[in-house]
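We were asked to recover a plausible sequence for a given structure. The inputs and outputs are reproduced exactly as logged, with field labels preserved.

PROBLEM: sequence recovery
POSITIONS: 295
GIVEN STRUCTURE:
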């Protein structure tokens, strides 16, 4: 068994009586704290220490979850690509292993998520076009934008807009004219920028609107909104997905538990939950770096 430590920090900012959450490294946390103090806000900082544990013994998904809950916290959850890389580094062999993601198949069990980790989806019916989302033809699990939003099959191809947190070429958003499926567009954005444009603050920002008006006002574009039936074992609402589309089967044919394919860059696939595989657990310990700071 090997252990790999992943340190993540959450800043809980109470702004106009509404809580928002961010995931950050220490440098980002300090910069965010500085900005929040300048705005005169109270900030509660809590740092948590993640430990990933690779268990070689082969078990079914349910047995693995019971083992993790008895000995650690739960089956491993993954917040973003950085977590995924650290999870890979903790493995002792290049094999296939369970993680804590499972599916509850069914049309009514789907939930909307933004592709960008940490961006929470809030229902806003004014964003959708008339009669949308209509889920026809079923399933329509990804979202395109023209003037308004509409759901569409994720296998359709459209241009798309990437978000870039590093301001590459002095731009936050980049319009990509290539026709790609939603998953291909997501992979492109994550490789070349940060992610597909995600969240109302991005989609309705002035820069985003100017980009649409200048180049793509009459073109359907993928944005980073999708829905699925997948859940994390510990109840976390993390939206990060890392599927290997060559082997992924979206909760069909009783393949309702997720594995990480370590020999395929850690990409995820689905498998029958009764199959026996090694697995990853995670453990969380509260760091002493916590407290309430007010300006």
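RECOVERED SEQUENCE:
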């Amino acid at each position: 068994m090997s252990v790999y430590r992943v340190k993540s920090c959450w800043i809980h900012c109470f702004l106009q009586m509404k809580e928002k959450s961010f995931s950050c490294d220490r440098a980002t946390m300090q910069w965010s704290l500085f900005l929040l103090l300048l705005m005169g806000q109270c900030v509660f900082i809590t740092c948590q220490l993640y430990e990933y544990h690779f268990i070689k013994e082969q078990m079914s998904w349910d047995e693995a979850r019971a083992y993790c809950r008895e000995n650690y916290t739960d089956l491993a959850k993954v917040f973003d690509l950085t977590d995924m890389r650290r999870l890979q580094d903790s493995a002792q062999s290049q094999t296939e292993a369970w993680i804590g993601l499972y599916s509850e198949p069914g049309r009514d069990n789907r939930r909307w998520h933004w592709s960008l980790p940490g961006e929470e989806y809030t229902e806003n019916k004014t964003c959708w076009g008339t009669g949308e989302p209509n889920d026809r033809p079923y399933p329509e699990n990804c979202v395109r934008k023209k003037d308004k939003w509409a759901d569409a099959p994720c296998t359709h191809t459209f241009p798309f807009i990437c978000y870039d947190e590093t301001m590459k070429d002095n731009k936050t958003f980049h319009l990509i004219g290539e026709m790609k499926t939603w998953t291909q567009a997501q992979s492109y954005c994550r490789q070349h920028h940060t992610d597909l444009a995600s969240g109302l603050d991005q989609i309705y920002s002035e820069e985003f609107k100017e980009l649409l008006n200048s180049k793509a006002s009459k073109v359907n574009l993928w944005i980073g909104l999708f829905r699925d039936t997948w859940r994390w074992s510990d109840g976390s609402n993390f939206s990060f997905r890392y599927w290997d589309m060559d082997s992924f089967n979206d909760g069909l044919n009783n393949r309702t538990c997720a594995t990480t394919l370590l020999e395929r860059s850690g990409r995820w696939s689905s498998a029958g939950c009764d199959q026996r595989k090694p697995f990853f657990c995670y453990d969380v310990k509260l760091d002493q770096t916590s407290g309430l700071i007010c300006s």
